[in-house]
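Support reply, case 0932

Customer input (verbatim):
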Amino acid sequence: MLSSRPYLARALYEWLLDNDNTPYIVVDAEQEGVQVPRQHVQNGQIVLNIAPGAVRDLLIANEGVSFNARFGGQPMHVSVPTTALVALYSRENGVGMVFGHEPVMPGADEMTFGEAAPDAEPAATARPTLASVGSAPAEEEAPASESVDASVEPGADAGVAAEEPASDSASDEQDADDNGQPKPPRKGRPSLRVIK
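Our regenerated output:
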């Protein structure tokens, strides 16, 4: 599964802008692939304003956040992999979200930010396919000699399977109370009953 972090970041970013707030992100500057102005990093983290007036070409993709900005008058391209995104919050009131450490998702691709996605062709060929199977004739249409009960084990007498409905009616009688009314289902965990 893909990480939920970029989806939440996009939604929070849009929500903060809709409420006239200034979105800030907290970035773990020590992680691999992070391109931020190192002179502003404190305690291994940096806080960046990603409001539309502060950055250009903002892209919040599944791989990470990237944009162009000026720091001390110097233009710079900033690149933050999704795993390095620590939080996204509002400057005005602090409302937002801190992203916790996500567990490794099964099937997650380990790609670095900016790396090209692998071809989807091999995954498409590995998928299972469905095939049409001819329908079996209905029991009413098939002669009795050709009718086979799937629950009968090989080598067992087919007559045993024909007697099973009688045992079902006996169990129905056991499930009825003295007045002939069916008993309400038992409470608690459901259970399966093996009928042979």
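We compared this against your earlier run and they match. Two observations from our side: The first strand starts at residue 23 and ends at 28. Helices lie at 5-18, 121-125, 158-162, 164-174. Please reopen the case if you see a mismatch on your end.
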